[in-house]
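User: I'll paste a sequence; please echo it back and then give the predicted structure.

Assistant: Echoing your sequence first, then the prediction.
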Amino acid sequence: MKLVLPLMVMTASLANPAEQAPHLDRIAVVDYGIYTGDAATSTPAPGTSTGQVTFISNLQLAEATRTIPARLGVRFGFRFDVIGEPEGKTVTLHAVTIFPPPGLKNPALPQPKARSDYNLTATLGTQSYRTYTFDSDWEVVPGVWTMQLWDADRMVAEERFTVVRR
């Protein structure tokens, strides 16, 4: 019996590393501010203020700032590196946006939303982004906007932006 346990431990340690469960070590914020880009695809996201999430192609940093003008068409947020192992595997992150009081009042919903929640998939060893775009007048709420990324119950990134009328 004493030989079986060491043999099992040795066999487990020789397993193919590509088969190991993906593990997110950390998120490293690369840049933040106002971005340009092209709306590529949208997917339903019931926990968000608009009910959908839009993915952006050709994302480019236009201005590194945490002060965001309160006007339609402005896209802001942050770009980040997804650091963990094994590279190429995906992890699910929970994206949270906390809106300034009184929240966002989508005319299609009965109550203002104080926050937006949805899950996103990120690939270990790559770069990704988390942005918000003011597409409707009711979204343009001045104050502090907080964007967070969570890995289960661990917050791995947070950026705050102050939306101001100019």
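The chain has one domain: 21-164. The radius of gyration is 20 Å.
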